[in-house]
Amino acid sequence: MNLKQATEIGKCLSNQTRFQILEWLKEPEKNFPPHETLKHFNDGVCVTYIQEKAGLSQSTISTYLTNMEKCGLLISTRHGKWSYLKRNEETIKQFTDFLI
Amino acid sequence: MNLKQATEIGKCLSNQTRFQILEWLKEPEKNFPPHETLKHFNDGVCVTYIQEKAGLSQSTISTYLTNMEKCGLLISTRHGKWSYLKRNEETIKQFTDFLI
DNA sequence: TTAATATATCGCAATTTATAGATATGTTTG
DNA sequence: CAAACATATCTATAAATTGCGATATATTAA
User: Which of B38, B47, B62, B77: disulfide with B43, CB 3.0–4.6 Å?
Assistant: First the structure.
């Protein structure tokens, strides 16, 4: 982790909705309904569920999630027409180590 | 630590200069010249030294430091006409615990 | 192949942030 | 008290971010 990447992560954490999404994704089973096709949360939560829970527009949430993936906070996995998002614990740990 | 406070901290960490200051303050002896009046860094580093090292205007740095103190990242101590800034390790720890 | 569904990207207006210069406040020193 | 110094605050402008609707792309279903 270097200063530039850490600052990119900081930018994602500077918005309450984005930060909240990261918190929700700590416990997908608790915060989101189960997926109909996948019977588990192994790859995280689909965009639509996150969008509905956040209450912002589809385009806004999609952009947020893309940014959060780019800076390393999230891992995105495609299954058919769905994208599933989960926390990238490794990068998050590197970020907190850098900060402390 | 709650979502609102964490996001305020995120805002401070969304700017490279502010993040850099926090990193510099990990090792004041290494990153700053010694103070003439105080022979130690117990209360941190004065505003002028931080401003000179950052290379931005006095007003900008003063605003940054004020914000960083307000959100809990820094602790400010006055000694006469100088303000000394140091990291608030307790809040930083609370922030990283909240994130992980 | 067409329609429906899920997600991504584009373009835009509104809001927020970045940063500086000017000025104000507070402290020390002559 | 006046001058000098350190820091804080105010005001203004440029730049970046927010968040949306429209549209594009990709995948599945009919």
Answer: B77
